[in-house]
Amino acid sequence: MADLGPIVSRRWLFRQWLLWTTVCWALLSVQVLNQRGISLGFLVQQWVWTPVLHEYERVYRQVQDWRDRWRTMNELAEENRRLRAEVFRYQQMERQYEQVLQEMALLKPLYERWQARRPSSLWARVVLPDVHAIRWHQIVIDRGSRHGVHQYAAVSTPDGLVGYVESVGSTTSQVRLVSHPFFRCGARVGTDGPMGVLYGQGNVSRVLLRYVPQGSVVPPGSPVYTSGIEGVLPAGLRVGWVEASRTSDTGEVLYEVRPAVVPSQVSWVIVDVVGVTPP
């Protein structure tokens, strides 16, 4: 293995020479600066501390600027949340206002009809859920004997016949719907067409018109009204429209009628309170 002693010695001598040369140059520089009245502290201040202080001030100003921006962003976010909550509240108010308008649009024809027939009718609200009307073909209204309601009084809407009062309490009444299996009433096709008897079928979308004279022409789409021949319901209340016809096993022509009123969508009704109560 080669002897590295001479090389190491030369490198060590070079480093020692460079170190002492640097020290001597530094001492000489300090002596020269002292002769000229310039201290080492002044140089350190000018070359080290002043740039460091300037950099610190710059960084501090930048941090302050970022903090102000962050504070402004938080304020804007809080304002945004507040505005969103305000918009949501106004949207709820708008929906409530639309519901009120819909309720008013529903009540207006009822009120107009009630005003026109004020001595003989009153308005009532349905107080049981829709499933009661669909399952049992009955509804309950918030008017009773205290308000002048009597049994077999006609119950209708501006669209047409709903049914008649089956039983009366002091403050509520039970209404039998047109679709009830035991519902019966006289009916007429059109204003001066043939008459028959309307039968409920336990189906809210179909009722049956029977006993129409043979040879009568009843085209589909013909309106069907109450005839009042049975002396219970007043004449002229719309029941629905003829949808189709079929012939029974006995040769009788049966007409399927689509009711004008959907019971599950009824909220307000008109009750006739003046008339002769059947025995």
Explain this structure to me?
The C terminus is likely disordered. The chain has 279 residues and is an alpha+beta fold. It contains 3 helices and 12 strands; from the N terminus they run H-H-E-H-E-E-E-E-E-E-E-E-E-E-E. Strand 6 and strand 7 form a beta hairpin. 41% of the residues lie in helices and 26% in strands. The longest helix is centred in the first third of the chain and has 77 residues. The chain has 2 domains: 75 residues; 152 residues, Beta Barrel (Thrombin, subunit H), CATH 2.40.10.350. It starts with a helix and ends in a 7-residue tail after the last strand. A 6-stranded antiparallel beta sheet has the order 1-12-3-4-5-2. The chain has a 6-stranded antiparallel barrel with strand order 6-7-8-11-10-9.
